[in-house]
Amino acid sequence: MQVAADPLLVVLLLVNFFLLGTSRLRALISGSASQGALLALLVLSVHGGITLQAALIALATIALKTIVIPAMLTRALRDAAIHREIEPVIGFVPSLLLGGLGTGLSLVFARTLPLAPEHAGSLLVPASLATAFTGFLLLATRRKAITQVVGYLALENGVFVMGLTLVEAMPLFVEIGVLLDLVVAIFVMGIIIEHISREFSSIDTTRLSSLKE
Amino acid sequence: MALALVLVPLAFAAAAAAMPSQKWRPWLLPACGTVHLALTILALGRPDVAAIGGWLKLDDLGRLVLAVVSVLFFACSLYAPSYLALRTERSNRVFVPCLLVFLAMTSLIVESQHLGLMWVAIEATTLACAPLLHFNHHARSIEATWKYLLIGSVGVALALLGTFFLAYAALRAGLGSSLFFADLVREAPRLSRPWLHAAFVLLFVGYGTKMGLAPMHTWKPDAYGEAPGIVGTLLAGALTSCAFLALLRFFQIAAAGGEAEFARQLMIGIGLFSMAVAGVFMARQRDYKRMLAYSSVEHMGILVLGIGIGGLGVFGSLLHLVNNAVTKGVMFLSAGNIHRAYGSKSTEDVRGALRRLPFSGALFLAGFFAVTGSPPFAPFLSEFTIVRAAMTQGHAVVGALFLVMLAIVFIGMGGAVLAVVQGEPPEHEPEGFRDRLGTVAPIALLMAIVVLLGVYVPPSVGALVSNAAAFVEGRR
Fold first, then answer.
1. Domain edges within chain B
2. Which member of A29, A101, B71, B183 has the lowest number of beta carbons within 10 Å of its beta carbon?
3. Which residues of chain B have a CB within 8 Å of the CB of A188?
C-alpha cells in the first residue's frame, strides 16, 4: 500500500518547489489547493482502501484545503486587489535552492530516525519534514500576508503527512478537531487580513512595523 | 463534574453570543466566573474527577493549574463589567463570548489526558484570543494580533509535529501508539530514543512559543502591550500556566524515557536566557505595558529554570506558577487603570499615578515590589525556594546568575514604575477616569492573595503544590 503513496509524495514535493518559485499569488493559492487534494488521495492510499474513517477524513480534507480555504484566500486577494509577491526577503531562485537543500537534508535526517518496518523506504517522513520546511521558508521570507498564510498551510500539510504514519493511532475526532482548528485559524487570519488591508490600504506585512524595540 | 468545568463556560458563551443587550452581557462574566470557581472548589474536594472514559481527568498537576486559572478568571470577571461599562464605544458582542470560550478551553487543557485533545484545546485558546487582542481595532492592535496569530499558530503546529513524533516513537516500540498521557509515561522506557529526543525538542519549541520563552517570545511585548488589562492578565497568568502544564506533561514523558538530563539542561539554559533577555529589554523600556510583557518572559524563564534544577526547585517552580499568575493579575489590571486615566502607555506622559489614582497607583507600586521578588510578598518565597534548591543541589553558578538577573530586572523595572507613580500628574485629563469600586476591588482581592501567600501558605494550598510537585517528579 505504501507503493501507491510514494508517487503522490513526489508530486507533493514538486508542488513545494512550485510554491517557492512562483510570484503570482493566484498560482500560489492553486498550488496550495492542489496540495490539499494530494493529501486527500494520500489518506485513501495509506488507509489501504476506503474505510469509513478514511473517507470522512479525505472528504473533510478536500472540502477544507481544496475548496473552502482557497476560496477564502482568493476573495481576500480580490478585495485587496493585488496579484504578485513583490520583493521577497530572499529572492525566488535562492529560496528554490534553499528548498532543495531543505528537502535533501530532510531525506538525510529521516534516515537517522529508526522507522517502523512498514515505513522503511517510504517517503512519508522525509516528505513531511520537507513540506513543513517549505512552509517555514514561505512564512519567514515573504511579505504578503496571503503568502504567509499559504506558508502556514504548507507547514500544516507537512504535519498532516507525518500524522499519516499514525493512522491506526489517531482517533477520528482528534483528526477532525485538528482540521477544524486549522480552518478556524485560516478564517480568523482572513478576517485580520481584511482589517490589515482596510487599515493600511495594503496587505504588505512590512507595513506592520510600529511595534518594535 | 469534569465535563461541567468545560461545558458550563461554553453554555455561558453561547448565552452571551445570543444576548442582545450590550449593557447586560458583561454581567454573564461574573456569573460564569462564580459558577466555575464553585465547581473548581467542589472538584478539588473530590478524590477522583474523570469523564468520557478517562479522556478527561483531573490529576495532581491539573488540580493546581485549574485552581489558579479559576481564581484568576474570577477576579477578572469581577473587573470586567466596570471596564466594559467604560468602553461602551466598542461592541462587546465578540469580546464576552471569546473570554468565556477561553475559560472553557483552558479548563479542557488542564483536564485532557489525551495529548491530541490537549493540542486541539491549546490551539483553540490561540484562536479565542485573537478577537480579544483585536478589541481596540486600531492599527497597532491589528499588527499585534497578526504577529500573535502567526507566531502562535506556527509554534502550535510544531508542537503537533512533536506530538506525532511521540506517537510514532510509541508505534515503533510496538505499543500500538496511544496518545494517552498515563500510557506514555508508563511505557516511556521502551520508547525509541531518537524519536523521543526529536519530539521533546519540537514540543519544547512549540509550547515554549506559547509560553513566551526567549527566543520564541517576540509576539509577547506586542500582544501584551496592545491587549486590554483583562486579556493581558488572562494571557500572562492563565494561558502561560496552561502552556507550562503542557510542557511539564512532555517533560514527564521525556524524563521517564531516560531523557531527563537533556531536558533539564535545556530548561536551565532557556530559563536563564529568558531572564537575561527580559532584563536587557526592560532596562530601557518606555512603555509600561510592554515592560510587563518582558516581566512575563522573565517569570516564564524562572518557571522552567526551577524544573531544570529539580528536587526542591520543582516545588519552588510550581509555587511560583501560583504566585506569578496572581501577581500578574495585580500588575496588568492596575496598569490598565492607569492607561485608561492617562490615555498613554509611555512613561514620558504618565506621571503622578499615586496622586491621580491613589488606589490603582498604590497597587501598581506594590505589585512591582511583589513581581520583582521583594519580601513579604509571595513571589519572594517561591524565588527564594528556587535559589535555595540551586545552591544546595550543586547548581551554585546557576543560582548566582539567577540572583544577578533578578537584581538587573529590579533596577530596570524600578526606573519605569517609579516614573509612573511618582511626581505631579500632568494638568490635562484626557478621559476623566477615576478609581471606582468595580475597577479596584478585584485588584485588591488579588493583592490580598499575594500578601497572604507571602506570609503564610495555608496547608490546603501547600498540599496542592507539593502534591503537584510529587506528581511532576513521578513520585505520585
1. 2-472
2. A101
3. 127, 130-131, 149
